[in-house]
Design brief:
alpha/beta; 8-stranded parallel beta barrel; Beta-glucosidase; carbohydrate metabolism; beta-glucosidase activity; Glyco_hydro_1_AS; EC 3.2.1.21
Length: about 450
């Protein structure tokens, strides 16, 4: 395996709704995911995040586990409805106290905190007023961001405004697979603009506080590979890149939407105000990149499929590690990037808990192989000149995997949801030893 710089950040990642539980504890308000999961037919196994990994009550144990992995950083999200139940108005001190205790425990273990402000759990009260289709939500988000930064901005290493706004917009409003469950492509475009606007407004609000935390955003990204060398497939791949990656990168780095995406999106609900791009185009201290797969683009009917030379994950996603190198090199060529963190990368495996010679164990060699290949691909990108400063495995724990419920396991740590017992998988031992050897 290649060697990484001594200053390289090694971490693990989670998100609030997926692990915390405590859905009604200590004044937390309902989020769109509470509403969505309690709506019959939305979640594959009919589960909810009401308890999840019970991290709200077990955070100290979980931080001890994080420390045992030799990582120096932990990426997690703050649940907006836990600290501001209605998304505007009064703050919930009990909610802030939870995150303060978590930060204290991380500091005790010398683990740097990397905070995400929004990992999809919009307060339901704001959704009742239109959610991300309502421009006012962007302004409310900026107020929330400033309050978190005021309280914690000098206690954390980084603050990301959003995690994967592509998913929030397209899966939440475009296809209905995720909360709030709207299926309207035009609504997805409108929501994406308000998400970007909220990012820019939040960046400005946090900058005014002069906090020590580095400020940025986390985007899920992929390359778009034409299935054949036909003109139709090549054009379709260019459109896919424009609609997915450039749609979010261009406003942040160039102050405009890509023309190819504007021509191929339903922009009938898109309302851009005079200074919007000035607000969105804020300097960021880092870019978080989440990478899981590439887009394999075919215009044939039915669409041509990739060869899956390295297999699939338990999500059905192609394992394509070289796509991480290709993505980072392409981003580096097309944009003037700040330092980059790989804020998510990981693999769902159909893990089985077994009794071994040393107790309970999970033999997940496919996940170890996945890690090796993607870390090698990441190193290749760094050798090509991309300034990548850290890697966060997704995820620390098996958890509530959105509309898949508890049927998909991404964690380095196996969670028995009946007992909440945590068991380090073989991949956790491998990751710990790999980091130790760096």
């Amino acid at each position: 395996m290649p060697a990484f710089p001594s200053t390289f950040t090694w971490g693990v990642a989670t998100s609030a709704y997926q692990i915390e539980g405590g859905a009604t504890a200590d004044g937390r308000g309902p989020s769109i995911w509470d509403t969505f999961t309690h709506t019959p037919g939305k979640i594959t196994d009919a589960s909810t995040g009401d308890v999840a990994c019970d991290h709200y009550h077990r955070y100290a144990e979980d931080v001890d586990i994080i420390a045992s992995l030799n990582v120096d950083s932990y990426r997690f999200s703050i649940a907006w409805p836990r600290v501001q139940p209605d998304g505007s108005g009064a703050w919930n001190e009990a909610g802030f106290d939870f995150y303060s205790r978590l930060l204290d425990k991380l500091a005790e273990k010398n683990i740097a905190a990397h905070v995400t402000l929004y990992h999809w759990d919009l307060p339901q009260a704001l959704e009742d007023k239109g959610g991300w289709l309502n421009r006012d939500t962007a302004a409310h988000f900026a107020v929330y961001a400033a309050e978190v930064a005021r309280r914690f901005g000098n206690r954390v290493a980084t603050i990301a405004t959003h995690n994967e706004p592509w998913c929030t917009a397209n899966l939440g409003y475009g296809t209905g697979q995720f909360a709030p469950g709207m299926a309207d492509p035009a609504a997805a475009v409108s929501a994406s603009h308000h998400l970007l606007l909220s990012h820019g407004l939040a960046m400005q609000a946090m900058r005014k506080l002069n906090v020590s935390a580095k400020l940025g955003i986390v985007l899920n990204q992929w390359t778009a590979t034409p299935a054949t060398d036909s003109a139709a497939d090549i054009k379709a791949a260019e459109v896919e890149w424009a609609r997915s990656v450039a749609w979010f990168m261009d406003p942040i780095f160039k102050g405009s939407y890509p023309e190819l995406a504007l021509a191929n999106n339903d922009c009938s609900l898109l309302s851009i105000h005079e200074n919007d791009f000035n607000d969105i185009r804020q300097d960021i201290d880092f870019l978080g990149v989440n990478y899981y797969f590439r887009a394999f683009v075919s215009t044939e009917t039915p669409p041509r499929q990739p060869e899956f030379k390295l297999g699939k994950t338990d999500m059905g996603w192609e394992i394509y590690p070289q796509g991480l190198t290709e993505l980072l090199v392409k981003l580096h060529a097309e944009y003037t990037l700040p330092p980059v963190y790989i804020t998510e990368n990981g693999m769902a495996v159909a893990d089985q808990l077994q009794d071994g010679a040393n107790g309970r164990q999970v033999k997940d060699q496919p996940r170890i192989d996945y890690l090796k290949m993607h870390l090698a691909a990441l190193h290749d990108a760094m050798q090509a000149g991309v300034d990548v400063q850290g890697y966060f495995y997704w995820s620390l724990l098996d958890n509530f995997e959105w509309n898949s419920g508890y049927l998909r396991r991404f964690g380095l740590i196996y969670v028995d949801y009946d007992t909440q017992q945590r068991t380090l998988k073989d991949s956790a031992h491998w990751y710990r030893n790999f980091i130790k050897e760096q």
